[in-house]
Amino acid sequence: MTKKTERSGKTERSGTLKSALASTALAALVCAAFAGGAVAESVKVGVLNDQAGVQADFAGAGSVVAAKMAIADFGGKVAGMPIELVAADHQNKADIGVNVTRQWFDTDGVDAVLDVPNSAVALGVSGIARQKNKVVIISGGGTSDLTGKDCSPNTVHWTYDTWAQANTVGTAVTKAGGNTWYFISVDYAFGHALERDAGEAIKAAGGKILGTVRHPLGTSDLSSFLLQGQASGAKVIGLGSAGADTINAVKQASEFGIVKAGQKLVAMLMVLNDISALGLETAQGLFLSEAFYWDLNDQTRSFAKRFAEANGGRYPNMVHAGVYAGLLHYLKAVEKVGSAKDGAKVVEAMKAIPTDDPLFGKGAVRPDGRAIHDMHLFEVKSPAESKGPYDFYKLIATVPADKAFRPLAAGNCPLVK
């Protein structure tokens, strides 16, 4: 659970930052080599996410495992330089995330920041990376503004965004007859963007939004919000949240009998770990979208097996897969450039090199920083349909890369001419 204690004052904020850095910094995977008494140049990357709060299972320690796997699979060196890895917990607070990032860039020699779930944190970190000419590769953060009005020459948005989630799920459900919606969204940048993008997709598909309500991040009791959705008479209650917030909403909706009464519950962002926490008895029949699923093909199954062996038997979701694939592509770009020190130049190389990895397949990084690849619509299996651990999804549809994300011209990114 997220700590609720309010902190104030310069000393306490400083203590929180020091604690976040001290408690979560990981030992470097590869020690810098010494030659003639001088430390050799290295490439240093940092995983920044929520490691103990409401989004810890969504990204958390699993993203660190994925980054370690990418470094190992690349060979531990890039352009002759050893690769180092650190990690920190941003506690879902933008000020902590920005301050950790600033210290990483200014003092600790970090060249690129990975993952960054929580869109408010991701937007702040993207701004710092631009100021410092470093790189940020977003896997966990969702707001489509990262490749829209807030796009940056130093940021790549890899795994998913609110536009892709809204269009993959919202459009399909609306066209299937769920044409009236009520939204229950988390009240920060991610929830706002998801609600906005979903509303546009639903209306374009012929649907209507009957109402919306927002709740703070980490709200444990969502009963009043769910009852408002039930009272609205909407055919669909859309959950514009992630992690523990979505899990709590689905559990409590089941307790109220909302689905049994005839309304459909749709998670606009839910991943494999969430279904594991809910159990198939509760989650069965949910529609959701992920960019990756471990059981899609032999390559995804091989990755998942290795990941689970390193992660206590827990399987990867799309955020973990995005950290792995995004880091591999970054290292290919550093290899091409020959150095990691000019962040904008490395991102230019990431855009110039076609993406091709075992988890997402072939794709590209567009001028706005959006990595494009297929997205998938799934339905959660019933307990009787599941054949083993983490066998949770039935593939309903695959949206091809050129259709899965917002059209380049529609995002209003200043980098797009």
Concise account of the structure shown:
The protein has 14 helices and 18 strands.
Structural summary, described in words:
- The protein is α/β, with parallel strands linked by helices and 417 residues long.
- The chain has two domains: 10-160 and 301-373, Response regulator (Rossmann fold, 3-Layer(aba) Sandwich), CATH 3.40.50; 163-293 and 376-404, Rossmann fold, CATH 3.40.50.2300.
- 40% of the residues lie in helices and 20% in strands.
- It has helices spanning 10-24, 60-74, 94-106, 119-132, 162-175, 189-204, 223-231, 243-255, 272-278, 280-283, 298-310, 318-337, 343-352, 401-404; strands at 34-35, 38-39, 43-49, 77-78, 81-89, 112-115, 135-138, 155-157, 180-186, 208-215, 236-240, 264-267, 287-290, 355-357, 361-365, 371-372, 375-380, 393-399.
- Strands 4-5-3-6-7-8 form a six-stranded mixed β-sheet, sandwiched between helices. A four-stranded parallel β-sheet has the order 10-9-11-12, with helices on both faces. The protein has a three-stranded antiparallel β-sheet with strand order 13-17-18.
- A hairpin with a 2-residue loop joins strand 1 (34-35) and strand 2.
- Helix 3 runs parallel beside helix 4 (119-132), helix 8 (243-255) runs parallel beside helix 9 (272-278) and helix 12 (318-337) packs across helix 13.
- The longest helix has 20 residues, at 318-337.
- Mean pLDDT is 90; it is low at 1-39.
- It holds the Pfam family Peripla_BP_6.
- Residues 1-35 form the signal peptide.
- Belongs to the leucine-binding protein family.
